[in-house]
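Course assignment 3, question 2. Fill in each field.
Student: A.L.
Task: Predict the tertiary structure for the chain below.
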Amino acid sequence: MNKAVIFDFNGTMFFDEDKHIKSWYEYAYQKFGVKLKDEDFIYHIHGHSNDDILEFLTGRKFTLEETLKCAEEKELYYQKLCEEDKENLHLVTGLENFLTLLKKNDIKIAIATASMKPNVLWYIKTFDLYRFFDDSNIIYDDGTLSKGKPDPMIYNRALEAIKANKEDTIVFEDALSGIQSAYNAHVGMIVQVDDIRRKNQIGFQPECKYLINDFTSLPNGIYEFLKINTK
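Answer field:
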């Protein structure tokens, strides 16, 4: 069975925590009158679906139409913040080379993100993701994910999409809920990604094998797991 790698996106492939924090702070207060605290991002925002976040903010379930409308409102502001910061509008250092190496070695790859379609389309265009992925292996919150992270549903769906065995798969994640989701999916290895500039540090999580700050100089154990000879 071929090895596989699944990536979360936000905070893993693209370091955008500061933009998500600012946009959620402002949107939550302007839309719902809620003043978010730092710990809210660790436990209720990062890695969670928009539906779960909106329920946390308001205490009620939103319809798909309501969630899409709110997501579009918030994400337009988030995208504007990202586009204004041109210096940091790029994939995490070393990631493009790593993706090229995975493709060269026929490693199956996928993205499993809690983001909804408006942001996913923006990511595809902004970072030219079709160089490495296609629609079949970009898994996102399309309204049919009834359970968000930390439930394993999204990772199970990604595994199914690329026809990968869980024990042969590495997941790269950054958020508590995402790491728990991958752990609940019983994947072979979880690698924690942590931007050194990150405001809401969560510390190295015991479910993870390695902690990395970017995709340069990855631990040899990752290549050994994937059976990639880098010499």
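Instructor remarks: The mean pLDDT is 94. The two ends are 23 Å apart (CA to CA).
Grade: pending
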